[in-house]
Amino acid sequence: MLPFASSFTTLLLALSIAATPLEVRNSPITLPIARSLNVSGGTINLLQHDQARAAAFRGRPASGIRRQSDNTSAINMGLSYTVKVGVGSPVTTYNLMVDTGSSNTWVGSGTAYVKTSTSYDTGEPVAVGYGSGSFEGTEYTDTITIGTGLTITQQSIGVANTSSGFTGVDGIVGIGPVDLTEGTLTKEESTTIPTVTENLYTQGLISEIVVGISFEPTNAEAITNGELTFGGTDATKYTGTIAYTPLTTTPLASTFWGISESITYGSTIIMSEITGIVDTATTFTLIPSYAYVAYKSATSSTLDQPTGLLRITTAQYHAMYDLNFNIGSNTYALTPNGQIWPRSLNTYIGGSSRSIYLVVNDIGSPGAAGPDFINGYTFLERFYSVFDTTHSRVGFATTLYTNATTN
Ligand SMILES: *[C@@H]1O[C@H](CO)[C@@H](O)[C@H](O)[C@H]1NC(C)=O
Ligand SMILES: *[C@@H]1O[C@H](CO)[C@@H](O)[C@H](O)[C@H]1NC(C)=O
Ligand SMILES: *[C@@H]1O[C@H](CO)[C@@H](O)[C@H](O)[C@H]1NC(C)=O
Ligand SMILES: *[C@@H]1O[C@H](CO)[C@@H](O)[C@H](O)[C@H]1NC(C)=O
């Protein structure tokens, strides 16, 4: 019996080793997210930035090609949400924009890439157009350090030799679906590039391909009040339970973090159920033209030319209803305060300090291609969000700030 038992044990060991090739540390990794409104370049046109970005999302071919040759013009992005990511050994730290709407990770728009012994030049040209900006350069692999010294080896990263539209940040950490990287290696049209989240998983640092994001409303110009969690969610950042909705299979929303939702303003239907996306790097919440017109009418707001935003009076503000986002069987209500831009930041976006501006705007007419709405930062600062590749779903939960009156 002994030889059998021992070889059985050996077999079990071999099996378990094969099943778990790497040590799984299994604990989520959390990083603080800094938010910064860069007004040094003068008034920032956040709406123009968002609409250019949305147009690029909507004009994107079903597969591949997000090139600089996509007809893009650079727009100072003004508002950024960044995490610190270390690259190389010794580490150089970069402030990278957290972007759920793209999936390439790259550096070089601010702090120049510092090559070290872990840097490997693949020689592959890489290019991505974002509508509001773009970069091109060369794909490297390098060691990435995140959080408290956790390292990903041989992470594929872009090193920009040219970029536009990314003032005040050093690049992007792309946490969208991996398919968005297809066509970005310009000589390998059908190749995708494993994202940071995927490599954290395949290298055994997290046990699920999940990202949790906490933003909090603020009226400060610069503050570190957000949190990015790789591999799980942070129960201290939300209240109640997280409700999940499946990722949509409807193109093109399905290329991104795409979901279905309908919207009501009070009891007025603004938008019946359609598909769109959730995007951290879009500031406003954009809805189709017909829904925007319905919202404008329901709020009795007027178009403010300087900002491009809808404007209301104080009396109208006090008469506002919740804007309800119906997702699956749950309703996420943006309160009146959640529907307005922080008043103390009005002048930075070209507005008047005495006016009240709404954060819901127009994505354009519904297209054959979609996505037809974007739940952007102004939605995400009121609801904790979870981007779950492992279970093909997106989750939302209320937070201590869902009903805050910061604006
Ligand atoms: C590209 O941009 C140029 C200049 O802004 C414009 O004239 C042209 O119509 C654009 N082309 C496409 C295909 O959008
Ligand atoms: C920048 O990178 C692209 C893609 O690799 C390449 O085609 C271009 O020649 C490079 N430009 C400069 C100025 O090095
Ligand atoms: C702010 O934007 C300007 C360009 O408008 C840029 O030159 C500057 O580096 C940025 N500063 C910060 C701190 O992001
Ligand atoms: C927000 O306020 C509404 C209405 O008062 C209430 O029903 C809801 O529970 C509140 N939500 C949170 C997360 O506090």
TrEMBL record:
Top-rank taxon, per record: Eukaryota
Signal peptide feature range: 1-19
Methyltransferase keyword on record: no
Record bears the keyword Hydrolase: yes
GO molecular function: aspartic-type endopeptidase activity
Keywords: Aspartyl protease, Hydrolase, Protease, Signal
Stretches assigned to the Peptidase A1 domain: 81-397
Membrane spanning residue stretches: none
GO terms for biological process, alphabetical: proteolysis
Active site: D99, D279
Gene3D superfamilies: Acid Proteases
PANTHER family: BETA-SITE APP-CLEAVING ENZYME, ISOFORM A-RELATED
Family assignment from sequence similarity: Belongs to the peptidase A1 family.
Official protein name in the record: Acid protease
Organism: Rhizopogon vinicolor AM-OR11-026
Biological classification of the source: Eukaryota, Fungi, Dikarya, Basidiomycota, Agaricomycotina
